[in-house]
Design brief:
It is a single chain. The protein is an alpha+beta fold. The chain folds into two domains: 98 residues, no CATH class; 70 residues, no CATH class. The chain has four helices and eight strands. α1 crosses α3.
Length: 204
């Protein structure tokens, strides 16, 4: 026995849930109708699942470079996001909640007032494509997500849809709870924000 290490492995878990035939390769479906359906859905569902939660296995730290071209208005600085960026986890310090920063994300950049600093330190959720890096609980959650979004196309049985939806809710709760044990909530400390936009001391 071996753990799932590829996108095809994850898809076949989903097909097991739906009690349909397994496929040989989701990335090259050829004339396999089931593989073609999963090929259409897999990456969008994977990215959506990753984007929506701060998964430990999908978090990176980076120093974003300053864009030489400043924003037209509203903010003083713009920092270029990595190509594998999906969502923001923290700025500068993981103990500072994102809600305490004045920033926006536009056109592949973070716009913020940072005193013209050459770089901006961030943590972000990245586009993990290697299924071998997924946590075990995320693999099951993703498999149930795939099953749920394709059940109507592949099976079309309302009783199966209800069964998969109920199981999906359970797997989502378990995956996020297990992730939380690996990345417990931070105790936000008192921080003095240097941005002129803030000019205040806050704590949480």
């Amino acid at each position: 026995m071996s753990a799932s290490t590829s996108s095809t492995d994850i898809v076949n878990l989903a097909l097991d849930i739906l009690k349909t035939e397994n496929i040989s390769d989701v990335e090259m479906p050829a004339d396999d109708d089931i593989a073609a359906v999963m090929n259409r859905w897999y990456d969008d569902i994977r990215q959506n699942a990753l984007e929506g939660f701060p998964w430990v296995f999908a978090t990176k730290r980076a120093e974003l470079p300053l864009n030489a071209t400043a924003p037209a208005f509203g903010y003083d600085d713009a920092y270029v996001l990595p190509n594998d960026y999906l969502s923001l986890a923290f700025i500068s310090d993981e103990y500072i909640p994102l809600s305490q920063w004045d920033y926006t994300i536009e056109n592949g950049q973070i716009l913020i007032d940072n005193g013209g600093g050459a770089s901006l330190e961030v943590g972000y959720i990245y586009d993990v494509t290697n299924a071998g890096k997924f946590s075990p609980s995320f693999k099951l959650y993703l498999a149930y997500l795939l099953a749920y979004h394709t059940v109507a196309k592949l099976v079309g049985n309302t009783s199966v849809i209800g069964r998969v939806q109920k199981a999906l809710q359970r797997e989502e709760i378990q995956a996020k709870a297990k992730n939380g044990r690996n990345n417990p909530p931070k105790g936000y400390r008192r921080v003095e924000m240097l941005s002129a936009r803030r000019g205040q001391i806050w704590s949480r």
